[in-house]
């Protein structure tokens, strides 16, 4: 994929995932699991949702936390803003936050689309506070898996 931002802009302009499609594809329960894990993560008061799309996972994060979504796709962010979610446009390979800015980070179904996923993981490590939490969901074929890491560095 030579231009991921353009691809996802087109995807979301064409309607993206509807809530019905998210449920049909079984994304809903996986996102609920991720949000639940982040809810139970001790000390995760500031949570960043990377590759937030239309904000489906961001909406599930506890409202008593400082939460923010980030995505490349401007049409998706427009949809997320309809739910009054704090979202920013940005690239996971060059995160716009200072070191150790976030207590927890979620990333559902986005990492494998990146041209340089190792760079994105390095950026996640940089902006995640020492002892912070990372909930990462990736799909490999039809076998999705969820990882929750308590990162110590």
Index terms:
single chain; 153 residues; alpha/beta; six-stranded mixed sheet; globular
In short:
The protein contains six helices and six strands, in the order H-H-H-E-H-E-H-E-E-H-E-E. It has helices spanning 4-13, 19-24, 27-40, 56-60, 74-81, 117-127; strands spanning 46-50, 66-71, 87-89, 102-108, 128-140, 143-150.
Describe the structure.
With 153 residues, this protein is an alpha/beta fold. The protein has helices at residues 4-13, 19-24, 27-40, 56-60, 74-81, 117-127, and strands spanning 46-50, 66-71, 87-89, 102-108, 128-140, 143-150. Strand 5 and strand 6 form a beta hairpin. The radius of gyration is 14 Å and the shape is globular. Residues 17-24 have low confidence and may be disordered.
Following the backbone from N to C, one meets helices and strands in this order, namely HHHEHEHEEHEE
The largest beta-sheet arranges its strands as: 3-2-1-4-5-6
User: Count the strands?
Assistant: 6
Ends: how far apart? 33 Å
- Share of residues in strands: 25-35%
Overall average pLDDT: 80
Structural class label:
alpha/beta
Q: Estimate percent helicity.
A: 25-40%
| Structure annotation, total helices | 6
What Rg do the Cα atoms give? 14 Å
The major β-sheet equals:
6 strands, mixed
- The gross shape turns out to be globular
Spans with pLDDT under 50 lasting ≥5 residues?
A: 17-24
């Amino acid at each position: 994929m030579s231009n991921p931002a353009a691809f996802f802009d087109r995807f979301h302009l064409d309607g993206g995932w509807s809530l019905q499609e998210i449920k049909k594809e079984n994304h809903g329960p996986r996102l609920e699991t991720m949000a639940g894990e982040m809810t139970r993560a001790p000390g995760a008061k500031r949570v960043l949702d990377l590759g937030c799309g239309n904000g489906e996972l961001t909406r599930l994060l506890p409202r008593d936390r400082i939460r923010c979504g980030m995505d490349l796709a401007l049409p998706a962010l427009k949809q997320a803003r309809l739910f009054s979610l704090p979202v920013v446009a940005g690239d996971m390979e060059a995160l716009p936050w200072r070191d150790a800015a976030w207590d927890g980070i979620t990333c559902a179904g986005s990492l494998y689309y990146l041209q340089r996923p190792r760079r994105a993981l390095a950026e996640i490590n940089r902006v995640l506070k020492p002892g912070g939490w990372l909930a990462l969901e990736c799909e490999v074929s039809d076998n999705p898996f969820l990882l929750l890491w308590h990162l110590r560095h």
